[in-house]
UniProtKB/TrEMBL annotation:
This is SDR family oxidoreductase. It holds the Pfam family adh_short_C2. It comes from the Bacteria. Belongs to the short-chain dehydrogenases/reductases (SDR) family.
Length: 257
């Protein structure tokens, strides 16, 4: 398996991070660039993506490929861009997530559930397949899926989202088994992290929301980025099929999220 090394002999690795124009995805990109890696980042909004690219680094370090993560043509463009620009795809971070509804599961329109599953689950498999076919199948590498504590226990109002993330965690284990020994596949499952995606869960009450966690605060995008960077590193070379729960200790108190 090809893994990042350390020291002066380290070969600059490259990877793809989906939904990385802001929040957790952008923090992951920043952490990887800081250690000398090169990344292709994706996002739906071309202007926001361009701004993130400019903030993250030079064209030698990062490029953006706009598009919807579950779109086949967009996936292929990103894979082609990574190989053309950087010559390799050592890792893939499936960070995209959608939760367009907040309602009891039986009240969620079937089309909304299909959309959630398409974006949160099926796209992760599709990206992994493309990257494996293009590079990792021959050279090895690593995949990290960004899931959620919502995939670990039921929660009111976000049932469809939680089901999709639970399926993503099982997909992680399945692919870890099937792609070993040359490709490692792991996941992270964050609780509430201070991003625009989760803003409705803490806006106007951040101190109160954070106090519910044993560590006394909500998560930061950098908390997740550090965990993902570890799972993509040589230090995690004997780790596969695992889910790293990032919940500020909430699970200790019998609460997740």
């Amino acid at each position: 398996m090809t893994e990042p090394g350390s020291g002066s002999d380290r070969v600059a690795r490259a990877g793809i991070i989906t939904a990385a124009s802001r929040g957790i995805g952008q923090a992951i990109a920043a952490a990887l660039i800081a250690r000398g890696d090169r990344v292709v980042i994706t996002g739906r909004d071309p202007q926001r993506l361009a701004a993130a690219v400019a903030e993250l680094g030079s064209p030698e370090q990062v490029i953006g490929v706009p598009g919807k993560a579950h779109d086949d043509e967009h996936q292929q463009r990103a894979v082609t861009a990574a190989l053309t620009t950087f010559g390799r795809i050592d890792y893939l971070v499936n960070n995209v997530g959608a939760n367009p509804v907040f309602a009891p599961l039986l009240e969620v329109p079937t089309e909304a559930i299909r959309k959630i599953m398409e974006i949160n689950l099926i796209s992760a498999l599709a990206w992994t397949r493309r990257v494996h076919q293009a590079w990792q199948g021959e050279h090895g590498g690593s995949v990290v899926n960004v899931a959620s504590v919502a995939g670990l226990a039921p929660a009111a109002g976000i049932g469809a989202y939680g089901i999709s993330k639970a399926a993503l965690l099982h997909l992680t284990r399945q692919l870890a088994l099937e792609l070993a020994p040359t490709v490692r596949v792991n996941a992270v499952a964050p609780a509430v992290v201070k991003t625009r995606f989760a803003e409705a869960l803490y806006s106007g009450r951040e101190e109160e929301a954070g106090a519910a966690y044993p560590l006394g605060r909500l998560g930061e995008p950098t908390d997740v980025a550090a965990a993902v960077a570890y799972l993509l590193s040589d230090e995690a070379a004997w780790v596969t099929g695992q889910t790293m729960v990032l919940d500020g200790g909430a699970g200790l108190a019998g609460r997740l999220g």
